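seq as requested:
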Amino acid sequence: MRGLITIEKLRPDGYEYPIGISVSFPLFNSATNTTGGTQTIDGDNAVHTFTTSGFFEPSFTGEVEYLVVGGGGGGGATGGGGAGGFRIGSGYPVTESANLTVSISGGGASQANGTTSVFDTVTSLGGGRGGISNNDRGMSGGSGGGGSYGNAPPTPGGLGTPGQGNPGGQTSTYVSPYGGGGGGGAGSAGQNANVRGAHWAGDGGDGLYSSISGANTAYAGGGGGGSYTGVDTNGSGGIGGGGDGGVNTTGTPGTANRGGGGGGSGPGAAPVSGAGGSGIVIVRFQTTQSANTPEYSIN
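struct tokens:
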């Protein structure tokens, strides 16, 4: 930030005051006329939170920080849904009165992929759905969905996108169809089935924390895998909004505006799996900026 800049130009000998000209770039509150989303103030920074699509219109020329999270994938038939893509950054250039497009993705419905969130040129992919049939690997996405129940050899999960998320976990290594793999999260891969014991579904991968909103919050956790049988054999959702898997019941949805993957269902009762959580975009910038147009005064 330039702040106050003064330039003095001395007059020749023998001239009285004024002796020069001062040039300043006055400071102003950039939050006053900046619009888009819901604005809050955190110390010396303004925060614009988007839970629906719209435009970010800055009243200054400068730089912003951003968080962009895609919609989580829906859970499958035991496979947990993958989290939406997670991207953060700083130093992103903006120009006064130039609208930047913001698109907020919905989470995937049961057994469907999540969709993409966008902040101008920054894109975070939706999470991949969990596996939905015998030996079906989860779909790839921001983070990959967990593999579905099946016979040996185990079915791998879907792939994550580098810089956005991680792969889903593989399905059971047992011949009988038991638990599914957990969906991948922004911070870690989905857990493979049976890691905690026979017939256990995998937990969803954990998401990542960000304090861009002013509160340290976890986003983009993977959905837990579902299971056919047993007590407490379902996978837990990953930290950051991932839904829990079901045991012959419906999986839990991912948390809205956190991009969590939906929990996989237990297919024995043919329930619907958990839907993925919707995405979010957050933009943060300093409230004190310096004007681009100088002001002049005579000393």
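The chain has one domain: 35-287.
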